[in-house]
Specification:
902 residues, alpha+beta, Immunoglobulin-like, Jelly Rolls, 5 domains, 44 strands
Length: 902
């Protein structure tokens, strides 16, 4: 059979080469990815997923079949003799989340893969050959031991480590695998390895710790080499006393690390450098570091040769063997945190001879960088914050109230630099980040400052979406939402980048759709769902923050928040068409719903937090919690269908119906068409989750619109109402939703913008000491794409395999446009109003289709490429029906120009 397969493959290659069009194919597989990464290093998934896109400009472009080949040598693929995996010719349009089913993958092996696709005409074409490289699958692959400096958890200075060794032959390939807790920097021969910052990502360390793989070939010499490592505390050893109790975390310990460097020589031999007690350690110039307070650095203690050959043994001692973290070691398969855009000050204000305040012009998460000269021992303090007082000084009362420390050197968001006095010196921190717009710099002796700037720091997610419209306020809200989203993405989705930095579950699931519309964020969300699972108790209960030290089970959780365990996998499935989270954690989902059922009373729930940070009107907790309980039961029945658990499907469908009945019996007033206390949140939640009986939907929606109009088109909601309000109005009252967003008086997103906001706030009120950089109200950015430009996923054909295009041409806008680089390629929807005509430009990516809703406006005629269409079929367009006062069309892949004319 193997010989037959080889012959068939060879013949296929010859046929492809013989066909003229294949030399310049009209359809090509491109953007090949493994585990949603391009040519990744160090994956340790037993069955990785493959995906690709199609490059095909033709209308109706589709893939009719594919074939994947995987080998340990690229030439095996060229010859058509793969030794690892070879699919048959699979007749399918599927191009993503295709799971490897070949021979068992081995640790530290570079595998090559290629895909052949057949287009709509049955013409085949080859992709380029790409690769992925495995990490360490087993604990037995790790050699050596975890080491540290043997100091106590309360010891402040960060430790240096070093190891010198000799390589005896020319290096062909070298990989470093390192887990350094809490944070680490790795260097070889004086050069920092890679461009990552704040590695590894935050996890529940006694359940899971992450290691990182580096290609270190270029750093090594065929001679003597020296490796240097410096360790910071991070979340592993929180030495402050935050409200959330990370100083009491069960995993807390002195920083430690394990490192394996595998070296392959060109002559076929190899070498291995591991951590053991032959490594040397000493205190570094980082005399304290804390994830909340920042860093204190004494440049007088810097050891020039600490990470290069030739340093003396004076002051060094042998490293200490120490226990590994209790959790499993897993590869960090998410984009790293990086130091990215540099932000220059827009204003520099001298307060007095020893104090300067820098205004960087925008709120962000990151670090500051200063370059200066001064005498030895001069102390520079850099305090970071997002407000200033009337005197122009930093005002951190909204941040400081959550921070405690017995160490006077530790103040929230304050870094200290002590000069060595040797020429021009530079300082920026290694082991923390701050949330700020302003930096107050003070110095106890005269200095000359040569340069100062901020640098944005976040998980380096690839941008995939865009939005713009004719209203500048909406554009600013859109940008502020992006700023807040990135400010709160540091290996986990967080709430704010300064006083908390916590993975609040409610904030995360409300902002998740915005993230998936705008960033290639699947890997971060997959990692964070694993964090959720690590925190789930046997009872099914979850905390309100993830990861947690143990805080958040007694307060701060409940179905409105911790249902992120259900919602995030659903959104990932909806936007990527990938069901791995649903399948992998199905039992966890069941355990969670069964826990809620245990806590319920007559199918209603009255636990957890309600509509957090609402404006004026509160919404009854039991109504809101029960509504989310209903939605989770409904989704679990969908998950049961996906996983082919038919008995569960019936069970949770029945549960959802019972919850819905209970909510309507207690909270629906059929005479007044209102829910609970009639709040905007209550009415919109009932509509958004489909709780309202079909015959009453229009009446309830009308009551909701009435409440909005009574408040002069202002919102009166909190966190959860901010999502349901906009989305429940979209189909029939998009103009009302738009007016809510476009408001420029309090309370509104626009009010923040008009008062100088560059990020989203935690509170609608201006009279508060709440955070000025929260992502919790971020659904507004997703709604702009969904409601105005009209790009929506189809829950019956997920992963944008079919796209719902339903733009709303609100009268107050002259244009709106959005794009999304989906898993299948570019989706674009752009419309413009000129005189008596609306123009709509659509791009539907290859291998997908769209369902297009165009409003059936009185007297309007619809054209595409100047050809009038009504209820007819046109090139790539087929009329389906009239629905919801719209003309509905099926649209094939391709590019289209529509016009709606009087």
């Amino acid at each position: 059979m193997k010989i037959v397969a080889i012959i068939a493959f060879t013949l296929l290659a010859q046929i492809i080469k013989a066909q003229g069009p294949v030399e310049n194919p009209k359809c090509m597989p491109v953007n090949l990815r493994c585990e949603y990464m391009e040519q990744p290093l160090g994956i340790d998934v037993a069955s990785p997923r493959f995906s690709w896109m199609l490059k095909d400009a033709r209308k109706g472009a589709i893939q009719t079949a594919y074939k994947i080949t995987v080998a340990t040598d690229s030439m095996l693929l060229v010859r058509g003799t793969p030794d690892t995996w070879e699919t048959t010719k699979v007749h399918s349009k599927k191009t993503n989340s295709i799971t490897y089913e070949g021979t068992q993958l081995e640790s530290r092996v570079k595998y090559y893969w290629q895909v052949i696709i057949w287009d709509k005409d049955g013409v085949p074409s080859f992709s380029e050959i790409v690769s992925f490289e495995t990490g360490l699958y087993s604990l037995t692959d790790w050699k050596g031991s975890f080491i540290n400096d043997g100091k106590d958890i309360n010891y402040l200075p960060a430790p240096y480590f070093r190891k010198s060794f000799t390589l005896t032959s020319k290096v062909k390939r070298a990989r470093a695998y390192i887990c350094g807790l809490g944070y680490y920097e790795l260097s070889i021969n004086g050069l920092k390895v890679g461009d990552h910052f704040l590695d590894p990502g935050f996890t529940r360390f006694d359940k899971t710790s992450l290691y990182v793989t580096y290609d270190v070939t270029k750093y090594l010499k065929s001679d003597e080499n020296t490796i240097g490592v410096i360790l910071g505390n991070g979340w592993y050893n929180d030495q402050s006393e935050s409200v959330w109790g990370f100083h009491n975390a069960p995993w807390r310990a002195r920083p430690r690390f394990i490192l394996n460097v595998y070296v392959d020589y060109e002559d076929g031999t190899n070498a291995l450098i591991v951590t053991d007690n032959s490594w040397s350690t000493m205190d570094s110039p980082v005399i304290s570091n804390n994830i909340y307070s920042g860093e204190v650095y004494d440049a007088r203690r810097f050891r020039v040769l600490w990470n290069v050959n030739g340093d003396s043994t004076k002051g060094w001692k042998n490293a200490n063997f120490t226990a590994p973290p209790a959790g499993r070691l897993k590869s960090q398969m998410i984009p790293p945190i990086k130091k990215l855009e540099i932000i220059k000050p827009i204003e520099v204000k001298k307060i007095n001879d020893s104090t300067i305040v820098y205004d960087l012009g925008q709120n962000f998460a990151g670090i500051s960088h200063i370059k200066l000269e001064g005498s030895a021992g001069t102390k520079i303090s850099l305090r970071h914050g997002e407000r200033i007082n009337d005197l122009g000084r930093l005002d951190n009362k909204n941040i400081d109230k959550y921070f405690k420390s017995r160490n006077p050197n530790q103040q929230n968001q304050r870094d200290i630099f002590i000069l060595s006095g040797i020429g021009e010196e530079e300082f920026s921190i290694r082991f923390s980040y701050h949330g700020f717009r302003y930096v107050e710099v003070t110095f106890d002796k005269p200095v000359t400052i040569h340069d100062f700037y901020g640098q944005i720091v976040h998980t380096d997610l690839k941008k995939s979406g865009s939005f713009e419209c004719s209203n500048p306020t909406l554009n600013s809200i859109w940008q502020a939402t992006n700023n807040s989203y990135l400010s709160n993405m540091h290996s986990i989705p967080t709430d704010c980048p300064h006083r908390e930095k916590n993975g609040w579950t409610g904030d995360a699931h409300i902002a998740c759709e915005f993230g998936l519309y705008n960033y290639d964020a699947i890997s971060v969300y997959e990692k964070w769902v694993k964090d959720l699972v690590d925190e789930q108790r046997l009872s099914g209960e979850l905390p309100g923050i993830v990861p947690t030290s143990g805080w958040g089970y007694a307060w701060g959780n409940g179905p409105t928040y911790d249902g992120a365990l259900i919602l995030v996998p659903w959104y990932v499935f909806l936007y990527y068409g990938d069901d791995r989270l649903i399948r992998a954690y199905y039992e966890n989902h069941k355990r969670y719903i069964d826990y809620l059922t245990f806590r319920s009373n007559n199918k209603l729930l009255n636990i957890g937090l309600s509509d957090w940070s609402h404006w004026k009107t509160t919404t009854p907790l039991e109504f809101l919690a029960s509504s989310y309980y209903y939605e989770y039961a409904r989704l679990l029945s969908v998950f049961a269908s996906i996983t082919k658990n038919n008995d569960d499907k019936e069970k949770y469908e029945k549960l959802a119906k019972e919850i819905k009945i209970a909510i309507n019996e207690k909270y629906f007033d059929r005479n007044k068409f209102t829910y609970a206390n009639g709040s905007q949140t209550a009415l919109s939640t009932a509509l958004y989750f489909g709780i309202v009986p079909a015959e009453f939907k229009d009446s309830v929606r009308n009551v909701l619109v009435k409440t909005v109009k009574e408040k002069d088109f202002h919102l009166d909601v909190g966190l959860f109402g901010s999502k349901s309000l906009l989305n429940s109005l979209t189909d029939k009252n998009a103009d009302v939703a738009y007016r809510i967003i476009a408001q420029e008086t309090e309370p509104s997103w626009g009010w923040w913008i008009k008062n100088g906001a560059t990020t989203l706030h935690e509170s609608w009120s201006s009279d508060t000491d709440a955070s000025l950089n929260h992502i919790m109200f971020g659904e507004v950015g997703a709604w702009m794409v969904k409601g105005l430009a009209g790009i929506n996923p189809d829950d019956t054909n997920v992963g944008f395999k079919n796209i719902i295009i339903k733009p709303h041409f609100v009268s107050s806008l002259t244009y709106a446009k959005a794009s999304l680089e989906s898993i299948h390629g570019l989706i674009k929807s752009e419309w413009e109003r000129k005189h008596n005509k609306i123009s709509l430009h659509l791009v539907i990516p290859p291998n997908t289709s769209a369902t297009l809703y165009l409003p059936n406006m009185s007297g309007k005629r619809i054209f595409e490429s100047r050809k009038r269409i009504g209820n007819t079929t046109h090139d790539g367009i087929a009329f389906i029906a009239e629905k919801d006062n719209c003309q509905v069309y099926k649209v094939d892949a391709g590019e289209y120009w529509f016009e709606l004319k009087n």
